[in-house]
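anyone else get weird line breaks when pasting these?? whatever heres mine. first is seq + tokens for prot A
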Amino acid sequence: MRMTMMAAALCALTMTVNAHAAIKEEPVTYQDGGSTMKGFIVYDDAAQGKRPGIVMVPEWWGITSHVRDEARKFAQQGYTAFVADMYGDGQTADNPKDADALATSVMKDPKVMEARFNAARSQLAGHASVDSTRIGAVGYCFGGAVVLNMARTGADLDAVAGFHASLGLNTPAPGPGVVKAKVLILNGADDPFVKREEYEALKKDLDAAKAEYRIIEYPGAVHAFTNPEATEIGQKFNLPLRYDAQVDREAKAEALKFFSTNLQK
């Protein structure tokens, strides 16, 4: 009896370890022209068959533990995620001055932004676990501006979501039918980094393009509400950043429904 109980316990432990080990996070070195990029592919190795892919564009800090944690969550939900390197050589910033410089280096030239996003998308679409006909994108803060701009260019994406997305538009206003992706914006209603006129400009362009989109603003939430480290970072640098666990849960639930509707078969 004791041996049977021990065997059962060992089996349960093995199943638990295997369940955790099923999520694979692999570094990927790839090229954008002459620039070397260092991203991550994250997927459930235990799942069978091809699944939708999601390109993930991080906050202006670069690839941090936050976006890698988010990628693992998407993998658990049945997607393969590719965390894009938008700066090259895996560069990150640990202060706002350097982060702003890195983000500006990408956003000041839409061709650079598009090329780096598309290089990441190509890596994702070519992965063995991915159904290349079902690709979406998600961005956080700076990354939100990237994915929204990519939707405006008519990028081959089915669904695009932005969490506490910056709304800096550096691409031409799309014509009717150009925007292929469904668009979801999940922002804090009290985010001081996003101006009301930016919302109006985006809505005007998306309406003219006859795009399908939805904007949700969460009362009381400010910038970076999905990042558990945001409050500490905000205090350190005197920035209006704050994690909000409830809004984080609500926004993630909306995104889950959105991607399920538009990417899952």
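and prot B, same format (seq, then tokens)
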Amino acid sequence: MKIIKAAVCHAFGEPLRVEDIQLRAPIAGEVEVTLDAVAICHSDITYAGGGWGGSLPAVYGHEAAGTIAALGDGVTGLAVGDSVIVTLIRACGTCGSCAGGTPTLCETPYDGDHGPIKTADGGKLHQAMATGAFAEAVVVKHTQVVKIGDHISKDAASLVACGVITGVGAVVNAAALRPGQDVVVIGAGGVGLNAIQGARIAGARRIVAVDMSEEKLAIAREFGATHGVLGSREKPWEAAQEALGGRGAHAVIVTVGAIPAYDQAPKYLGKGGKVIMVGMPHSDAMSTYEPVMLAALGQGMVGSKMGDVVIQRDIPWMVDLYDQGRLKLDELISGRWRLDQINEAIADTKTGSARRNVIVFNS
């Protein structure tokens, strides 16, 4: 067993503790990745705060990039020394969802309590989200990683693993946006900015960002929003419709887990439009809407997990767009932190002003 440093959650709502843990070698079908960077996602914060329950102690973190250090038996197409993006999408490849082209909904369960990590004294340690990347290294299934070139920095690459594919994918895959259609993006945080980028790349006519902060609306324009609406104003959907020339949107992408955002989302829609539900509220939180309006206007609401991506298909073209200067990644990084600063980085993320904070190793 290898000894590495990791940020461990021992109790919900308490600071993470950076300590030694055990990491076993990869077995058949797995790879070991030495991490260079892991970004802090709001999902990690919600889990660590107890918002969705779960097993403790645990290592969170799921938005990472690094270099392959070892291969388990039967792994092909990858080699020691390859630069990779590490995702939480542990697709089996054979269940009905995987075979049907939706690996983000893989039906094969994973028991993180019996994964590759243990506490320093050999006790149970939960590998959260099948990744556990708030650590110096991870062992994951080989289908969770995508090989990239060395030309892209690992801190920028780490963002692709979740925030980028979730936001861009929600527009391109879930909403199936066509050129000339209009989009409203509720929330201009990390995922929201990527949804805005996705809409720009897909050829949206107008892109309206909705947020509670004027500063974040200004940033949204830098990423491609054509208009910004303060969510705190009375009936913000009316301002959005005015920005869209007096009509509703073809797609409304909800990227925050706030219940008021979900309550209001259908009000931004035009006839035949769809709400794409991306942001994840705490368990048991409830939203309300008028189903008669959805039925009468031919509208819909659909959930989108991880942008409905197929990582081996979608991550390479997103990285290529970055290479061309058409997808912003470096601009998404608000701050770079060491592992021993992770609680400070989490606190900064909770303020809502950060786009993405990144833990950088060996810096």
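btw re prot B: The domain at 2-152+329-360 is CATH 3.90.180.10 (Quinone Oxidoreductase; Chain A, domain 1). The chain has two domains: 2-152+329-360, 166-304.
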